[in-house]
Amino acid sequence: MAKKLVIKVTAGPEAAERCSQAFTVAAVGVASGVEVSLWLTGESSWFALPGRAAEFELPHAAPLPDLLDSLLAGGRVTLCTQCAARRDITEKDVLEGVRIAGAQVFVQEAMADDAQSLVY
C-alpha cells in the first residue's frame, strides 16, 4: 500500500462532482493517516485564495472549506506555478499553508517509491 497519496485536481465549480471527489479523497486520506499532497491546477487554482472554497456548493457533499482546512492542517496543498501565473495569483494572495510549486516538484512527489497518484 502506498504511504503517500498525490492528488492533482483540475476541476472547479464547472465540474463540481469531480472537484468534490478529489478534495474528499484527499481529506479521507489525511484522516486515515496517509501522507497527502493535493495539487490545485486549472480551475481548482482559485481555491488557494481566501473565501473561494466557501463559494463552492454541491448538494450532499462535505463542505469544501472543511475539507480544505483538514488538508491544510494535516497534509500539503500546492498551487501550480503556471496556473497561478495565468490567474495573477502570487504567494501573498494564497491561504496560509498553500505553497506554489511547479511540474518538477509534482513529478518528484508523484514518482516517489512510496507514492500513489490520482488525477481528477
Describe the structure.
The protein is of the alpha/beta class and 120 residues long. It has one domain: DsrEFH-like (Hypothetical Protein Ychn, Chain: A, 3-Layer(aba) Sandwich). It has 4 helices and 5 strands, in the order E-H-E-H-E-H-E-H-E. Strands 4-3-2-1-5 form a 5-stranded parallel β-sheet. Helix 3 (81-86) links the parallel strand 3 (76-80) and strand 4. The radius of gyration is 13 Å and the shape is globular. The mean pLDDT is 96. This is DsrE family protein.
The topology string of helices and strands comes to EHEHEHEHE
Helix percent reads: 25-40%
Straight-line N-to-C gap: 20 Å
Report the strand count. Answer: 5
Would you give the CATH topology? Hypothetical Protein Ychn, Chain: A
Number of domains: 1
**DSSP strand content:** 15-25%
Q: Could you name the CATH class?
A: Alpha Beta
CATH superfamily: DsrEFH-like
Q: Tell me about the largest β-sheet.
A: 5 strands, parallel
Q: How much is the radius of gyration in Å?
A: 13 Å
Q: Can you list the strand order of the major beta sheet?
A: 4-3-2-1-5
Mean pLDDT rating: 96
What's the CATH architecture?
3-Layer(aba) Sandwich
- Overall, the morphology is globular
Q: Ranges with pLDDT <50 over ≥5 residues?
A: none
**What count of helical segments does DSSP give?**
4
Structural class category: alpha/beta
Pfam family, one: DsrE
Organism: Streptomyces californicus
Protein name: DsrE family protein
